[in-house]
Design goal:
Blueprint lengths: L4 E6 L3 H16 L3 E3 L7 E6 L4 H17 L4 E6 H6 L7 E3 L7 H11 L3 E3 L23 E4 L1 E2 L10 H5 L3 E2 L2 H13 L4 E5 L15 H8 L7 E4 L9 H9 L6 E3 L7 H6 L6 H14 L4 E8 L6 H14 L3 E6 L17 H24 L5 E8 L5 E5 L4 E4 L8 E9 L5 E8 L2
Parallel strand pairs: 1-2, 1-3, 3-4, 4-5, 5-6, 7-10, 10-11, 12-13, 13-14, 17-19
Antiparallel strand pairs: 8-9, 15-16, 15-18, 16-17, 18-19
The structure holds iron/sulfur cluster (SF4).
The site of iron/sulfur cluster has 9 residues, from helix 5.
């Protein structure tokens, strides 16, 4: 007999997705039933995001949706939005980004006392990584593993260091054990994720991402490791050698550029200039000609005039990213950039986003078109809508018509790209 029904809504990044997965496990182990968030539940949990003003708005919308769905339900809000805006929230239990692993205790404390609970910690004082370990990844073919939390970089536009606190890393032996368990459970690909993944280990003794990766690629039967995101100045020569010598490391890197103008990069407090960025990209591409590099870009940052934007477009063309995730600058209260002069108006931002997305679509098409007629090995993913995708190491999602099981490794030949950059292929051979 289940205790109560719980619906969970997760907003934002892979770290939030991982944490919600862990929370789901804890609840199941304690006898709660997990139901879809858009159905009637006794408890609703909203794991919020606050990276942009839009994310805050979406967080509020999901909280109100839950209340309307069942106004007798227990409403629990956690994550980045509540970490910085808890006073704006009306809910039964409010947590920030610490103590998500104590969710069951807080629910049972609330059920016993019927008193609202708010637990928002000053993350600046937190040094310990909040241990979490998953042993499966519901409805996912690839498993995310959170290896690190927090960020010390304080880019001038970013709220994350305030919502997630300083860098805290999971102990390497815990990462190894978690990945080994997932591999033994049959997961072919592990996605390493964190808030600032490249800074993994700076808070531990004699540890860093390169050392961790060197140990991970030794795990028996591990087919593929993917890094969710990494900063350009954290791809060390040692990591490049590892990529060169081990096919286990996926041939796709998501490396945020943020701006293609040195003037704006300085104002953003980013830790590189364009010459360095371009040089590193050249080095990465020399490892494997099929490597895919995607990026994040903010347009309309304060001080970005027509000239700086033109520089950005030229830089993007020169670097030939496979895809450019583009965001209009969003002023986050409490960050230095929010009070800078020369804020850019919304209409200009919108037009710049449109231009960059157009360029991204063209570059994405050019990248995929290079591989028509080529054969790749990949992992099968069967999507909820029945679509069968083979995901290659360099992150090409190839659509095939065969009925296949998720998680198989197969060879696929790319045959066609359509105008929406959908990639089609045919199965050449099956391995497992
Ligand atoms: S590196 Fe910069 S953009 Fe990334 S989370 Fe840290 S402060 Fe934010």
């Amino acid at each position: 007999m289940f205790k109560m029904k719980v619906g969970i809504c997760t907003l934002g990044c892979k770290v939030n997705i991982y944490e919600s997965e862990y929370v789901e496990d804890l609840l199941r182990e304690s006898g709660y039933e997990i139901v879809p968030f858009d159905t009637i539940a006794d408890i609703y949990i909203i794991n919020t995001c606050s990276v942009t003003n839009e994310s805050d708005k979406k967080s509020r919308k999901m909280i109100n949706q839950a209340k309307r769905r069942n106004n007798n339900a227990i409403i629990i809000v956690m994550g980045c939005y509540s970490q910085v805006k808890s006073r704006e929230i009306d809910a039964d239990i409010i947590l920030g980004n610490k103590d998500k692993s104590k969710i069951v205790e807080y629910i049972e404390e609330y059920l016993a006392s019927q008193k609202n609970i708010t637990k928002i910690y000053d993350l600046g004082k937190i040094q310990e990584f909040e241990d979490m370990e998953i042993n499966h990844f519901e409805n996912h073919t690839r498993a995310f593993v959170k290896i690190q939390d927090g960020c010390n970089a304080f880019c001038s536009y970013c709220i994350i260091p305030y919502t997630r606190g300083p860098v805290r890393s999971k102990k390497p032996e815990d990462v190894i054990r978690e990945v080994t368990n997932l591999v033994n459970k049959g997961y072919q690909e592990i996605v390493l994720t964190g808030i600032h993944t490249g800074r993994y280990g700076i808070d531990l003794e004699d540890m860093n991402l390169e050392k961790l990766l060197k140990r991970l690629v030794e795990i028996p039967n591990l087919y593929r490791i993917r890094l969710s995101s990494i900063e350009i100045n954290e791809i060390t020569d040692g990591i490049m050698d590892l990529i060169k010598n081990s096919k286990i490391i996926a041939r796709h890197f998501h490396i945020p550029l943020q701006s293609g103008s040195d003037k704006i990069l300085k104002l953003m407090n980013r830790r590189y200039d364009l010459d360095y960025f371009k040089e590193q990209i050249k080095k990465i591409r020399s490892i494997d000609k099929d490597i895919s590099i995607t990026t994040d870009l903010i347009v309309g940052f304060p001080g970005e005039g027509d000239q700086e934007f033109e520089e950005t477009i030229n830089t993007l063309k020169e670097l030939e990213f496979t895809k450019i995730h583009t965001f209009p600058y969003s002023a986050r209260v409490g960050t230095p950039a929010s009070t800078m002069d020369n804020q850019v108006n919304g209409v200009v931002k919108k037009e710049r986003v449109r231009q960059v997305l157009d360029l991204s679509k063209t570059q994405e098409y050019n990248f995929y078109s290079k591989f028509i007629g080529s054969t790749f090995e990949g992992i099968v993913e069967v999507h909820k809508d029945g679509k069968v995708i083979v995901l290659t190491s360099n992150y090409i999602p190839v659509i095939v018509s065969n009925q296949l099981e998720s998680n198989q490794i197969i060879q696929v030949k790319i045959t066609k790209i359509d105008n929406n950059n959908q990639i089609y292929g045919k199965v050449i051979d099956k391995y497992s």
